Amino acid sequence: MSNVSHIAVIGAGTMGSGIALTSALAGKKCTLIDVQAPQLENARSYHEKQLSKLVAKEKLTSEEASHAQSLLDYTTEMSDASSADWAIEAATENVEVKKKLFQLMRDAFGEDVVLATNTSSISISDLASAVEGAEQRVIGMHFFNPVPVMKLVEVIKGANTSEATTNATVELSEGLGKIPVPANDFAGFVSNRVLMPMINEAFHAWDDGVADPEAIDSIMKLGCAFPMGPLRLADYIGLDVCRDIMMVMYNGLNENPKYLPNQKLVDLVEAGKLGDKSGSGVYDYKKE
Q1: What kind and span of H or E run contains 217?
Q2: Catalytic annotation on 278?
């Protein structure tokens, strides 16, 4: 499991694209897989722009940027990445979607390949149950957005994850320039178990009329030294993602009502106002 040279990333959204770029910058060949060809083109464009920015900032030479781009492949077929020696699922935060992908991953890749997931809240043991016989190779690698910048990888073992898989995941994370930190397999893990209720409470404060969004975010930035206010952060993450994570925690933590998403958050999502990616959410970005 050590000396990983070729990583397959399944899902070419924000997180998958970031993981792929980070892999290439670390000298790893990376195949980015998505059933949506336009999503792959978006990822390719993102990679080209980010590499150009790094060259402009003199953090990379033109030759280094070209080499990183050459390490990136894009495909709609998982079989095209069958030679990969590590796989990371980075699809939507939906347990049934992820389980189906894990079954495809088990069949597509070698018997020694680690099957990692970038889930930010779903039980690793539950996902591993979809690949009977391969549970020891399933582990959580929760990267943070933007992946090329953020140093943390939350490493989550499932009930049957082997020590060899865990050790290899720590080693690979460090090889990608990240700092791996362990967390146990509870809904939301550590990061979202703490962060999402805070974001949800900011929606409650807005909904109750305590203050408007700008004031809530300003108070948390100025008073708590947050780099970004909780409502602005919710838009950045995606309001649909915030809602889905809250529901994962609600269902996974004994249906505790404190984890139910605030109705204003739900209403925005149902109206298609998802934050940055849709152009509006708590805030309107179309004017910017």
Answers
A1: helix 213-224
A2: no
pLDDT of 195 > 90? The answer is yes
Instruction: State the angle between helix axes of 191-207 and 230-237 in degrees (0 to 180), rounded to the nearest 10.
Output: 120
Catalytically annotated residue among 121, 173, 192, 262: 192
Three-state SS at 143: strand
240: part of which helix (H) or strand (E)? Answer: helix 239-252
Q: Is 67 among the residues known to form the active site? A: no
Residue pair 181/170 in contact (Cβ under 8 Å)? The answer is no
Q: How far is it between the farthest Cα atoms of the chain?
A: 55
Q: Which candidate in 154, 173, 262, 278 is catalytic?
A: 154
Residue 167 annotated among the catalytic residues of the structure: no
Q: Phi and psi for 271 in degrees, rounded to 5?
A: -85, 0
98-142 confidence digits (pLDDT tens): 999 999 999 999 999 999 999 999 999 999 999 999 999 999 999
**From 23, 120, 123, 278, active-site residue:** 120
23 is catalytic: no
The 10 Å Cβ neighbour count of residue 123 is 21
Token code pair at residue 237: 């993450």
